# Entry
Amino acid sequence: MTDQTTRLAVYPGSFDPVTNGHVDIIERGTKIFDRIVVAILVNVEKAPLFTAEERVATAREVFRGKPHVEVDTFQGLLVDYARHRQANVIVRGLRAVSDFEYELQMALMNRRLTQEIETVFMMPAEPYTYVSSRLVKEVFSLGGSVEGLVPASVEAQLRAKHRRLGAQVSTDGNR
Ligand code: ADP
# Structure
């Protein structure tokens, strides 16, 4: 439960997987808000690399020891989830101008859906302005280093996932 004075923010996204850009935004957010919920979208249409359960476990591991950060999942309308959590704020990260158009549309649509929740945009530290989960996955899958772009535990998860996928491919190939 939150009262009128508690600033509860929801930070929604796919987090497939968590990157240091996400971590940067969360760390900045915890200085402004009393509590932040990392809300992982369970999107049945997108085909994520990590399952929702894996993404939750990874995010919990990354934010372990941060009592003001909670990890949860949601589906459906974000504003319904935010209302259900009694959140006053939706946090989104803005990396570059390219993010702006989509984010503006989303923020204005969400405002149309509810007047009770404000969207707050936060800029990451410069080294993370080009980091996205998609690019991290692409570089890693092609054998490039993602050191410093994701937490060490996420790098380990990526390695394990690719080992499993590799094993699966070779087993399928042997059939
Ligand atoms: P989406 O599926 O919307 O791309 P993501 O998991 O990639 O969701 O990101 C969730 C939120 O985090 C979005 O607001 C996105 O702009 C922001 N974000 C992602 N990467 C970074 C980064 N490197 N720096 C700042 N914000 C970021």
Summary: The domain at 8-170 is CATH 3.40.50.620 (Rossmann fold). Helices lie at 20-32, 52-62, 78-84, 97-113, 133-141, 152-173. The chain has one domain: 8-170. The chain has a mean pLDDT of 93.
